[in-house]
Amino acid sequence: MKYTKRLLLVILTVLPVCASAQHGVEFEVGQSRLEPFYNGNATALQWIYDEVQRVQINPSATLESVELIGWTSPEGSYESNLELAQRRSEAVKDFVVYVLGIPFDRVTVKNGGEYWQLLDAMVEESDIEERDRILSIIRGTENPDTCESLLNKLPQPSRDQVQSLYADLRCVECQVYYVSDETTSVEGAVLMEVEEPVRPLLNSEPRPVERPAIPRVSVPEDGYMNRSVRAIVPSQRR
Length: 238
Description:
five-stranded mixed beta sheet; 238 residues; CATH 3.30.1330.60; 26% strand
């Protein structure tokens, strides 16, 4: 004998959590060499290590990935800046893998290219002279090299004011993704009709679920960075 029963299936989804550094790792104009003590780089690199360690010592959390996005300012050609952005993100990846000890397969790099989005936001929030004209150039010029050329033709002091914002565009931004038991949520429910022989559903034995082993960052015995790393990235703890 068969009968039709209705099963309400609740779909549980583990949502990755993203933590983003407030300040990116910065570079000098036209350079891809990572300088740990340039501007606020010591703080930014320390944040990456601390955030990953915080996840690793939490038994309910698992590190998914550390994502690095390389950016440049508009100086130079668009094509050359694409290459520069890639080299910058690779330089930071080498540091976090070989100095901070973050697993290689947990670090990904992305090429952001010229950071026009951030320049747009900074100009909009500024009191630069001819701000509306500058925003019109940024938002209305499709070719990035043409856009740079038009900004270079701005009268003073507007040109210098725009170019003073370029330093913040030469950076690598970092985001740490992890999953935690606390991030599990109900995504949705599906009502299904199933035909099967009469049998109490509660008598079925649950099937064990095997989870693949995920390598973790090894935590130093003192719970913090070793002496050689402290010499490169000073502790920001108070």
